[in-house]
Amino acid sequence: MACAFFFFEAEPLRLEHGRGHAPALDLDACALCAKPLARNSDIFMYMGDTPFCSEDCRYEQMNHDAALARQQASSRRKQQQAQAQQSAREAPAPVSAAAVSSKANVSVAS
Q1: ∠ CA 86-89-92 to the nearest 5 degrees?
Q2: What is the maximum span of the chain, computed from C-alpha positions, in angstroms?
Q3: Ranges 5-9, 27-31, 89-93, 99-103: which has the least confidence
Q4: Following DSSP, what letter does each residue of the chain receive, concatenated?
Q5: Which of 23, 46, 97, 109 has CA 20 to 30 A from 60's CA?
Q6: Over the stretch 47-104, which tens digit does the pLDDT of each residue have?
Q7: pLDDT at 107 over 70
Q8: Are 15 and 23 in contact (CB under 8 A)?
């Protein structure tokens, strides 16, 4: 119990903005439902420093993040496919060996 008391009573580390550091998060409320977190209750952490009041809230956030990641991946795939189709349309047509040999006055054995 002494560890939990120390955890909440310790002064939070304040990181500087603009230097590549994330702002320090408070452990006062659930990140999803904003329910106050009691000093003597369990805190369910996610992604290292995001507190949740219950496994349900944490699970809901995890599902939301997974859906967002799938959506972003799908969007990236569609964008890459569109770029590939665009570059395929812009690429010059391949030249056949017969066309090259006739321009160079060389016969090609088939």
Answers
A1: 130
A2: 92
A3: 5-9
A4: -HHHHHHHHSPPPPPPTTTT-PPPPPSSB-TTT-PBPPTTS--EEETTTEEESSHHHHHHHHHHHHHHHHHHHHHHHHHHHHHHHHHHHHSPPPPPHHHHHHHTT-----
A5: 23
A6: 888 999 999 999 999 999 999 999 999 999 999 998 888 887 776 666 666 655 555 5
A7: no
A8: yes
Question: CA angle, 22 as apex, 20 and 73 as ends, to 5°?
Answer: 90
- How far apart, in whole angstroms, are the C-alpha atoms of residue 34 and residue 29? 5
| Token pair for 84 | 């590939």
In this structure, what token pair is assigned to residue 68?
Answer: 């967002």
Residue type at 89?
R
Cα 96 to Cα 30, 91, 99, 105, 108: the distances in Å are 66, 15, 5, 14, 11
